[in-house]
Design brief:
alpha/beta, 9 helices, binds adenosine monophosphate
Length: 270
C-alpha cells in the first residue's frame, strides 16, 4: 500500500473504489475497505479530518488521530493507496462549496450547524480528485449516507454509492473513532444506546418505538439524549405507520462525547 499526500505521486488505476474517512480507523472502516475491494483492486482510502464539519474547534482538536494503526488497518483490509491530503489540497482557492440541503438541517444538522455543508463540500472535493467509480459509506452515519446519495443524484455524478452495514462490538456498541475518547465507565453508559435501539426496533408501532427509546435513554444516568426519532429512509422525514422503510435514529452525549447510532425497524406492521 502506498501512503501519499498528493495523488500526483502515484499512478492511479481506474476504475477506483473509494473510502473516505477521518482516520482513527477501526474494524468498521476495515469492512468498508473490504467491501470496496469486492468492486475493484484499486482502492483508495482517504484520511482527512475535515475542519469544516466540526462546529467546535475543541472537538476538532480532540478528534483522535492515529497514523500507525491507520496504516496497518487500511493495508490489512486491502487498500492500495492511503491518501492523506492537506487542507490546502482539499480546499484550493475557489473550491466549490456544497450547501446543506434541508435534510441536512435536521437531526445531526441542528446541533452541528454547517456540519453537512462541510462534509458534502469535502466529499465533493475528494470525489473530484479521485474520480471513483464506486464510493463506500457506512450506514452508521445514516444521514450523511442519505445526503451523499442525494448529492450524487442531483449533481449527476458518475459514482455509485455503496452502503455498508454498521459494525459493532460483540456487546452491541457501534464502532466509532470517538469511542477512543470514552473511559471504561463511559463505555458502559454508551452501551445503553444500542440496547435501546435493539428494543425499540421490535415495537409494533412508531409511537411505541419512540417512547421506548426516549424512556430508556432519558432514564440512563450519564447519558444526555439529543434526539430519538423514527424516520422514513427514503425521504428522511418522520416516518408514518405506512412508511415501508423506517429507521430508528439516536444521538446524545456521554461525558461530553457525542455518539450516534441507528437501526432499521424490523417488526413495525406495514
Ligand atoms: P469517519 O471516519 O467516522 O468519518 O467514517 C468514515 C466512514 O466509515 C463513514 O462512511 C462512516 O459511516 C463509516 N463508519 C464509521 N463507523 C462505522 C461502523 N461502526 N460500521 C460501519 N461503517 C462505519
Amino acid at each position: 500500500m502506498h501512503v501519499v499526500q498528493s495523488l500526483d505521486d502515484v499512478d492511479l488505476r481506474y476504475p477506483i473504489a473509494f473510502v473516505p474517512t477521518m482516520g482513527a480507523l477501526h474494524a468498521g472502516h476495515a469492512e468498508l475497505i473490504k467491501q470496496a475491494r469486492t468492486y475493484s483492486e484499486s482502492v483508495i482510502v482517504s484520511v482527512f479530518v475535515n475542519p469544516r464539519q466540526f462546529e467546535d474547534p475543541e472537538d476538532f482538536a480532540k478528534y483522535p488521530r492515529s497514523f500507525e494503526s491507520d496504516f496497518v488497518i487500511a493495508s490489512d483490509a486491502g487498500a492500495s493507496i492511503m491518501w492523506m491530503p492537506s487542507e490546502e489540497m482539499v480546499y484550493p482557492p475557489g473550491f466549490a462549496i456544497i450547501p446543506s440541503p434541508l435534510q441536512g438541517e435536521v437531526f445531526e444538522g441542528v446541533n452541528r450547524k454547517g456540519h453537512f455543508g462541510g462534509a458534502l463540500t469535502a466529499i465533493n472535493a475528494l470525489f473530484s480528485a479521485v474520480k471513483p467509480r464506486w464510493a463506500v459509506f457506512g450506514e452508521k452515519d445514516f444521514q450523511q449516507l442519505f445526503l451523499v446519495r442525494q448529492m450524487v443524484v442531483e449533481r449527476k455524478m458518475n459514482v455509485e454509492i455503496i452502503a455498508a452495514p454498521t459494525v459493532r462490538d460483540p456487546d452491541g456498541l457501534a464502532l466509532s473513532s470517538r469511542n477512543l475518547l470514552l473511559s471504561e465507565s463511559d463505555r458502559e453508559v454508551a452501551l445503553a444506546i444500542s440496547k435501546a435501539l435493539y428494543k425499540a426496533i421490535e415495537k409494533s408501532s412508531i409511537s411505541e418505538a419512540r417512547l421506548s427509546l426516549v424512556e430508556t435513554l432519558s432514564g440512563e444516568r450519564g447519558f444526555l439524549l439529543d434526539y430519538a426519532a423514527i424516520i422514513d429512509e427514503e425521504t428522511f422525514e418522520m416516518a408514518i405507520e405506512r412508511t415501508p422503510h423506517k429507521r430508528a435514529l439516536v444521538a446524545g452525549w456521554v461525558n461530553g462525547v457525542r455518539l450516534i447510532d441507528n437501526m432499521a425497524m424490523t417488526s413495525v406492521e406495514q
